[in-house]
Design goal:
- This protein has 471 residues and is of the alpha+beta class.
- It folds into two domains: 224 residues, Adenine-n6-DNA-methyltransferase TaqI, Chain A, domain 2 (Alpha-Beta Complex), CATH 3.90.220; 183 residues, DNA methylase specificity domains (Adenine-n6-DNA-methyltransferase TaqI, Chain A, domain 2, Alpha-Beta Complex), CATH 3.90.220.20.
- It has 17 helices and 21 strands.
- A five-stranded mixed β-sheet has the order 12-20-17-18-14.
- It is elongated, with a radius of gyration of 33 Å.
- The relative contact order is 0.12.
Length: 471
């Protein structure tokens, strides 16, 4: 490191700049505050480099214990034990409230002529670079660093004036970083709300309001009536659903729209899983894709399966064709996805296959996603919620002309693609922003973050002053 240090900097060990390094108190800790109690730090109280007073515990301490373990302004807490998750976590104490130094944390108090926050930043940089893990892994106890090892760490040391400028600059940049992170945290919810608004606009006709102007579209009420007559002729046993009462529907439909039950336009069939036990090895093989409720809740389009059934397994189940709308009726209620492959699923999933050119499976999926919360209310309050086919049979669906259904699907997919593109950019940007503190500190300790001034002198003078103070 020494050959690459900026002008006026020196390399030294941590022990040189530390006035005091000590272990924490092992006083009995209590969860709740009581009269005369004092808060005490612990590993869990270290959050983003500061002390989270909401997570402290409480102890009873006499005057000598308070004097021995009380944190002073500018003290640094260092997690030297426990696990790789906590190893090297640091907190800079800058608070007027009393706080005692707890067990499993080392207290570091820097020399008075050194900026203690600069030392805290050096420790953060060492943790980011993985140096603490490297040293701990060479120890007998691989998840700890004792005082001797910590004191031996080599650190860069600029003149005091430059230390102060670096700390000021880093504080300003970290504050900006926090503000950016807080703004970024809103994006996933904004995208989720946007998608939900798109779906609501789609299934209420507002998304295609201007598109309908001037178009001669088939009246859905007549269309539904013709379908019901045709189905009765094709299947005399077909039970004609009761008419939907428009007053029971949650919104006013466009003039060319109507309402009907899904079974008017296709077939509802519950998945099959007759064989018990369900984990019988004979059921599984490599021939017929098989999904469960968890797969339905993850994607819009199911293109692959984690498991496959054997010939024996297929006899206990049913192979649903590509294009089937899957609806979960147990555990996660009314989650939806469309099969892009022929696939089997258990009786906790319902398959809906609309007849060609009568109703869009994707439009049905969009509507189910806008009323999912309402459908959950029909599930009995048991350990595992579930609904049945009878409930789905009674749910009225909006019926736009088929041409408009196709236009709605096209517009929703186009808007969702834009949202997905934003989401992908967000994930990439979030990764860059999350690593920004590391980049800031890396530049700081290369001497590239603030201007170097000849008037600062050399850190060699600072080392002499530290040595003089120690004597």
């Amino acid at each position: 490191m020494g050959n690459h240090l900026p002008k006026g900097w020196v390399e030294t060990d941590l022990d040189t700049v530390i006035e005091r390094m000590s272990n924490g108190s092992s006083l009995k800790q209590h969860e709740q505050f009581f009269e005369g109690a004092l808060p005490i730090s612990r590993i869990e109280t270290i959050a983003d480099g500061t002390i989270d007073f909401n997570r402290v515990k409480y102890v009873e301490a006499n005057e000598s214990e308070i004097e021995k373990y009380e944190l002073l302004d500018g003290d640094i807490l260092f997690s030297h034990i426990n696990s790789d998750k906590h190893l090297g976590k640091t907190a800079f104490f800058h608070n007027e409230d009393t706080l005692l130094h707890g067990i499993n944390l080392l207290l570091l108090r820097s020399s008075k002529v050194v900026n203690s926050e600069f030392i805290y930043l050096v420790l953060r940089d060492l943790r980011y670079s993985g140096k603490f893990i490297e040293v701990a892994q060479r120890s007998v106890n691989q998840s700890s660093i004792n005082q001797k090892k910590l004191k031996a760490f080599r650190i860069p040391l600029p003149p005091r004036a430059e230390q102060d400028r670096i700390v000021t600059k880093v504080d300003a940049l970290m504050a900006q970083h926090t503000a950016i992170q807080q703004a970024m945290e809103r994006i996933p919810q904004l995208l989720k709300d946007f998608k939900q608004q798109v779906l609501t606009q789609a299934v209420t006709g507002k998304l295609t309001e201007e598109w309908r102007v001037g178009k001669e579209l088939e009246d859905s009420e007549s269309f539904i009536s013709d379908i019901l007559k045709r189905r009765k002729v094709e299947n005399p046993k077909f039970k004609i659903p009761d008419n939907v009462n428009p007053e029971d529907f949650p919104f006013d439909q466009p003039e060319t729209w109507s309402f009907a039950f899904l079974q008017t336009f296709g077939e509802f069939t519950r998945g099959k899983s007759k064989h018990r036990p369900r984990n019988d090895e004979r059921l599984f093989g490599d021939q017929y894709p098989f999904i469960q409720t968890g797969a339905v809740s993850k994607v819009d389009l199911i293109t692959e399966a984690d498991k496959y059934l054997s010939e024996f397994g297929l006899k206990q189940s049913r192979l649903f064709p590509k294009g089937t709308l899957c609806i979960t009726i147990a555990a996660n209620i009314a989650e939806t996805a469309i099969l892009d492959i022929d696939c089997c699923f258990p009786d906790s999933v319902v398959g809906y296959l609309p007849f060609e050119d009568l109703y869009s499976a994707k439009f049905a999926m969009f509507y189910l996603r806008t009323i999912q919360k309402e459908l959950e209310q029909y599930a009995p309050a048991t350990a595992q919620k579930n609904i049945n086919l009878g409930i789905l049979f009674k749910v009225p669906f909006p019926v736009p002309p088929f041409q408009e259904q196709q236009e709605i699907v096209r517009r929703v997919e186009s808007l969702f693609e834009k949202a997905t593109a934003i989401e992908q950019r967000y994930e990439k940007l979030k990764t860059q922003i999350d690593t920004l503190p590391q980049s800031i500190l890396h530049k700081a300790f290369k001497g590239e973050l603030v201007e170097q001034l000849d008037s600062d002198g050399s850190a060699l003078e600072l080392l002499k002053e530290i040595e003089s103070l120690k004597k």
